[in-house]
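Dear U.,

For the methods section draft, I wanted the exact inputs and outputs in one place so we can describe them consistently. I've listed the two proteins in the order they'll appear in the manuscript figures. Please don't edit the token lines directly; just add comments below if something needs changing.

First protein:
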Amino acid sequence: MTSSSDQKKSSWKFPKDFWIANVMELCERAAYYSFFIVLTLYLTNIVGFTDKETGIIAGIFYAGIFFLTPFMGAAADKIGFRNGMLVTFTLLTIGYFFLAVLHTKLIVILFLLIVMLGAAFIKPLLTGTVAKLTNEDNRARGYSLFYWVVNVGSFSGKTFVPYIRQGMGLENVYFFSASMAFLALIFAFLFYNPKGFVTEKKTFKQVYDTLFKVLKTPKLLFLILIVSGFWITQGQLYASMPKYVIRLLGESAKPEWLANVNPLVVVLSVVIITQLMRGKKAVNSILVGMILMPFSAFAMSLSVPLQNSVGNSISIFGLFETHPLTLMMIIGIGIQGLAECFISPRYLEYFSLQAPKGQEGIYLGFSHLYNFVSSLAGFIMSGFLLDAYCPDPKTLPIGLTEVQRASYYSSAHYLWYYFIAIGCCAIVALMVFKYVTEKQKN
């Protein structure tokens, strides 16, 4: 008889390709988050798009990734996982490299599309590899390890970015992203060769039909729109925050490090919070996260008023001093991380419960449509709000004194009020949704 300790030990054993997939994911996430945290800065400062144009382009780019992912999954099943890995990392390497080299507007849009295709392609390939190389005994551990690698890649990539951006130039960040994607391509070519993957091949028409089934299911459509309210604010970590911090604190600021507060809080808290909420209904856990989100935007909105009140430095328990804006960004982003811990682990569970009986798996393929909605709305809003309240310094009149220049940013924190309002509307909408769906069951 096999002892329980032997079972536990064996459940941590994974095939070689599982570990290769995790190494590739580590490289890919480091490349992607390094690229994405400075994307709006790159489009405005290097390429020359306005804040409004940048919001539209970045919103379409990010939304496109999540819209295309299910279709790319169908393509991966047709050409095979190994070929898919080679294609996607080739696309990403080419895309990142030429974004670092060429800065003409139309050329940049072309290579953003190439990166978008690669980023959409990689998601079903890597998560599919984990699914196919784990079993009932070790699947939970396999995914927890994979999720940990995702956050390590995100954290490490953004940690290096300020040194490259400030020391070598912003566009050179994309050389780093290209090198990480190329490293993943080498691993895919030399070591990744899974055998015997049995896939349920779907046609593009089947994926397309499923999309319309989801959109014609009122419960699912309303849930997607409501949860989008949370992710519109969370997305400002990449849409508004980098420009907001640099324009108010100067080029020496490191918004990339502030963004790392989010994955740090998630890694430290998600297991604890999931454990605390395991006996609660999924919708109640989501509601807690939704309630937290307006407080995140509110904390960020206090950055300018606090600076006006205490000056450019505030003491933290007498241990060290920091800028008030930095403090409020850390608090606001930390609250975002906590809110994400309440929402993300339970959203898929709740989404599947709202899907028609027996079709949960198919419908979950489009569960991330909230990212499509929130990206379009959030990034486009960000462009217009930055232009109105925290404008690009290059658009200001020449010859301004420091006092005159500061007057243009005195209301910069107003942009966060819009996200407080969106968060509050999402809370009310989720409460109504919860009441209506629970009443229908009774």
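Second protein (the one for the lower panel):
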Amino acid sequence: MPNYVIGLLGLLVLVILIFQGVHIGIAMVLVGFVGFWIMRGFTQALAQLINTPFATVNSESLSVIPLFTLMGVVCAYGGISQDLYAACYTFVSRLRGGLAIATEIACALFGAICGSATATTASMGKICLPEMDKYKYKRTLTCGSISAGGTLGILIPPSVGFMMYAVNAEIGVGTMFIAGIIPGIVLCLCYSLVVYAVCLIDPNAGPKGPKFTAKEKIKASLGVLPVVVLFAMVLGGILFGWCSASEGASVGAAGAFVFMLLKGNFTFKNVVASLRETIETTAMIFLIMIGAGILSNFFSSSGLPQMLTRSVAAAQVNRVWILIACLGIFGILGCFVDSMPLIVLLTPIFLPIMDLLGYDRIWFGVLMVMLMQLGLLTPPVGMCCYVMAGVAKDTPLSTIFRGTAPFLIGITVAIAIVIAFPILSTWLPSFMQYGG
């Protein structure tokens, strides 16, 4: 039996295990180990099982994961959500759907220090939901806007999705972070336009809010200052070459603790909770990365990526259709499989094809993360919707998914814009002093 057939069978078994509920990291380790055993013997398979975990966790590039995770978690426990939302709302309150538009902007700002879609949804949901209920917003718009806004947490840097893609694509983490800034702004604008369109069609969905004076706006804007400072310190340092991504993550984590202290939330309970959540998240990500390393080595040894690349080279098909097919596969699987491990799984398979077709790796990484966001809003996985259901306990999950439907149009438009104009994701990284 040819090795690439073993690789295809391994991929099929992996999908079956995932659908059976086996943890993605364990499933990848199991398939990679057994695959090596079949192709190279037990000794080499055991060597992979021993060496790959050490090589993975010993990588300096992965140090950004616990540090940026810590930064986001500490900021969440530091109580920044309410200040962000209040500041954004004072400027757009007189628009129909102003509270929902403020939610999108506040989620984008919170995502700039968080990096997690579910954490952004949970943190902002607790603040935004009562306010929109107060002004009698329809629950479909309320829950839809918060769930959609939460996905900005993995596109606006720092982003766990970009971290995982960068490591697998052998691109600087800092480079991917900077690449996500403009697409993140584009998506935030698309979400805001969706809110405005929904309120034009149904004015009762999002009534106008109160009017604020210039003095109130200035006072509320001070709440955004810590985010701006932290964002400028971390991403500004990476962009202009003052620090690497790892160094920027260290600065960000330290700055987050300073912010927590200044806000008066530096308590033993909050610190312990922040550290526990950081450890749990980091352990989960590292298990996925270890599994991905073993599985990637198995696929490479089987010749599966090379076989697929040769097949694409021999096919008389326009490269745009091949790109759309790859993105379509990722988008469809993202509806059924958690998108974060999916990006680790598919990156080694798709990247050789993208290289053959002459597509930019940075641009393709941005598209993959944007498709991750699509998976976070679509059933049956739709993690942001499930998190929102946990916040809005009296709202049926079907209502939440119905509320996110218009925002799927918004993210589709944003993806189409980034596909049509790759410079949106490659322009800022071109100014970087080094890849970070």
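Candidate sentences for the figure legend, describing the second protein: The radius of gyration is 22 Å. The longest helix spans residues 268-302.

Thanks,
Y.
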